[in-house]
Write a structure and sequence with these properties.
The protein is an alpha/beta fold and 322 residues long. Helix content is 27%, strand content 26%. A hairpin with a 4-residue loop joins strand 9 and strand 10.
């Protein structure tokens, strides 16, 4: 039983979330058997043979000038064509912005179920079981599948990539779709500036909340993030107030993150925010209110004034770094 993985690329480079999906596919294949096959849509080969080191035995490549940026109809057609060719038991998608859009489209086209934003996968009696958070992260649900293939999207930073020897075989994939009149067209992507790592892929995140009192005070969060080599995030209240762009928002209506270290500065911990960051490996909360809900999920909590604590912490980290 083969496992198919959607390989996400941008600007001619495979995104790290694809390696995480391939790693999980490799672990599933050890139980289910069969090869791990990737499917990628791109204007040109983004170096897919190298994905053999990440767990892919073969990668099907659909090329078209329309695939220079994400093209939903073309991507759906490519994944469906790959499913028809490979006949996989499982199809994995990264639960990135692209994966969130693509996976349900493919599920609807195939008429099968989708388990979205999963944090763990297991095989029980030869059947796939997927675990995903529900009720804003207050509970976890384990689901099975009644149709084949089983479609699953994986929360970024929750699954480990693998490293092995060898190269993947890259095979052209013929795709038929009408590229002449798309309903919508992606013209490009604009980063947040400074070449910072996207929140969903960041290893360390420092987020600021309404406790900072104003956008002019966000510099203490930025300084701490710079000292840690982190990406800056924000709560919904901060974004709604116009202090930070929506791309910085962590939470249920923003980005769901799972970094190795999450530092929450002046964030009370509303359930919407907790739903987006509670999967972080280590959570550090800094808040002057000892009853703030953020302390219930934090591994380490510091009750104090952020305007005193954060600069002192930044100075200590800079000293340690030399």
């Amino acid at each position: 039983m083969s496992i198919l993985v959607f390989i996400e690329q941008r600007d001619g480079k495979v995104r790290p979330v694809s390696n995480e999906a391939l790693g999980e596919a490799t672990r599933l294949a050890a139980t289910l058997g069969g090869p791990v096959v990737g499917v990628c849509v791109a204007a040109a080969d983004p170096g897919l043979a190298a994905l053999g080191a990440a767990g892919a035995d073969e990668v099907l490549l659909a090329t078209h000038e329309a695939f220079a940026t994400y093209d939903p109809p073309g991507a759906v057609a490519a994944v469906v064509a790959a499913v028809e060719k490979v006949k996989p038991a499982v199809v994995l998608f990264p639960c990135s912005a692209t994966g969130r859009d693509l996976a349900p489209r493919v599920a609807a086209r195939l008429g099968v179920g989708l388990a979205a934003d999963c944090t763990a996968l297991a095989v029980d009696g030869g059947k796939l079981r997927a675990t995903r958070p529900v009720y804003a992260g207050k509970a976890f649900q384990t689901v099975g599948f009644t149709a084949t293939p089983a479609l699953v999207s994986l929360r970024p930073k929750m699954f480990e990539a693998v490293s092995r020897d060898g190269a993947a075989t890259v095979t052209p994939l013929a795709v038929t779709f009408d590229a002449s009149a798309p309903r919508a067209k992606v013209t490009g992507f604009t980063g947040g500036g400074g070449g910072k790592v996207d929140l969903t892929e960041a290893e360390i995140i420092v987020s600021g909340g309404r406790g900072l009192k104003g956008p002019e005070n966000f510099n203490i969060v930025e300084d701490l993030a710079a000292a840690l080599g982190a990406t800056v995030g924000a709560s919904r209240a901060v974004v709604d107030a116009g202090w930070r762009p929506h791309g910085d928002q962590v939470g249920q209506t923003g980005k769901t993150v799972a970094p190795k270290l999450y530092v929450a500065v002046g964030i009370s911990g509303a359930i919407q925010h907790l739903a987006g960051m509670s999967s972080s490996r280590c959570i550090v909360a800094i808040n002057k209110d000892p009853e703030a809900p953020i302390f219930k999920v934090a591994d380490y909590g510091l009750v104090g004034d952020a305007f005193e604590v954060v600069p002192a912490l930044t100075a200590a980290i800079k000293k340690l770094n030399g």
